[in-house]
């Protein structure tokens, strides 16, 4: 976001990533600065982060996780940052959404933001009845929307919120073992669809 906002990468990023970052001419910097219409932001979870005790050589197998020189962990003092979901890498951390939105506002000149993905998964169940009774997902979106409302009061310019996802789908390496949808798909019965409790909750929420 820094090149799109200020025309260049931040100095600490240039020090860490080095020659793998492109250099802009003055004309290119001016061209790229402010060249976006909005920021599309996907948010699922947060972790704690701390400086690496022993810095990693960025020239060995370089990637963003080594460039950052931080260690990420979901634990602090033996306690998880949020409650678990059907995905081992997604814990429920609503406050992280507000923190991220306020950071983007303060760091990048308060851009227009659309939250293009926000959601959580259940472990797949073949039975329809437990599959549609997704209380945790209702609470997930309710709590995140409350944090979004607080961010709006903080002056963040969020123009839209898209729940992931409308339907249960094929989830990358996890295949059909996880369900992110607001609507339950019966994969063994001609893809018949059933609205989950979260879909009914969203309907009432949007009618208010």
Which percent range fits the helix content?
A: 25-40%
What name goes with the CATH superfamily of the largest domain? Glycosidases
Radius of gyration: 20 Å
Q: What is the multimeric organization of the chains shown?
A: single chain
User: Can you tell me the CATH class of the largest domain?
Assistant: Alpha Beta
Query: In DSSP terms, counting alpha (H) and pi (I) runs of 4 or more, how many helices?
Result: 8
Low-confidence stretches: none
CATH topology of the largest domain: TIM Barrel
Mean pLDDT across residues? 95
**Largest β sheet strand count, sense and barrel closure:** 3 strands, parallel
CATH architecture designation of the largest domain: Alpha-Beta Barrel
SS strand fraction: 15-25%
The ordered string of helix (H) and strand (E) elements is: HHHEEHEEEEEHEEHHEEEEH
The tally of structural domains comes to 2
Count all strands and give the number.
13
Describe this protein's structure.
The chain has 208 residues and is an alpha+beta fold. The chain folds into 2 domains: 1-36, no CATH class; 40-207, Glycosidases (TIM Barrel), CATH 3.20.20.80. 35% of the residues lie in helices and 22% in strands. It has helices spanning 2-6, 11-17, 26-32, 64-67, 94-107, 128-132, 135-153, 197-207; strands at residues 39-42, 48-51, 70-73, 75-76, 79-80, 83-84, 91-92, 112-118, 122-123, 157-163, 178-179, 183-186, 192-195. The strands form 6 sheets. It has a 3-stranded parallel beta sheet with strand order 1-8-10, with helices on one face. Strands 2-3 form a two-stranded antiparallel ribbon. Strands 4-5 form a two-stranded antiparallel ribbon.
């Amino acid at each position: 976001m820094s090149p799109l906002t200020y025309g260049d990468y931040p100095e600490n990023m240039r020090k860490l990533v080095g020659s793998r970052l492109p250099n802009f001419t003055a004309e290119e910097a001016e061209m790229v600065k402010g060249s976006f219409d909005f920021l599309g932001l996907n948010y699922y979870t947060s972790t704690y982060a701390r400086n690496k005790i022993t810095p990693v050589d960025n020239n060995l197998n370089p990637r963003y996780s080594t460039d950052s020189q931080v260690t990420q962990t979901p634990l602090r003092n033996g306690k998880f940052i949020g409650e678990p979901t059907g995905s081992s890498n997604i814990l429920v951390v609503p406050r992280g959404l507000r923190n991220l939105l306020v950071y983007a506002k303060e760091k990048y000149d308060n851009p227009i933001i659309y939250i293009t993905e926000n959601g959580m998964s259940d472990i797949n169940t073949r039975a329809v009845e437990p599959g549609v009774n997704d209380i945790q997902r209702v609470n997930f979106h309710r709590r995140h929307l409350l944090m979004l409302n607080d961010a709006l009061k903080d002056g963040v310019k969020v123009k839209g919120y898209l729940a992931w996802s409308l339907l249960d789908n094929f989830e990358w390496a996890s295949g059909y073992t996880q369900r992110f949808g607001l609507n339950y798909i019966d994969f063994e019965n001609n893809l018949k669809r059933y609205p989950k409790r979260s879909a009914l909750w969203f309907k009432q929420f949007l009618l208010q």
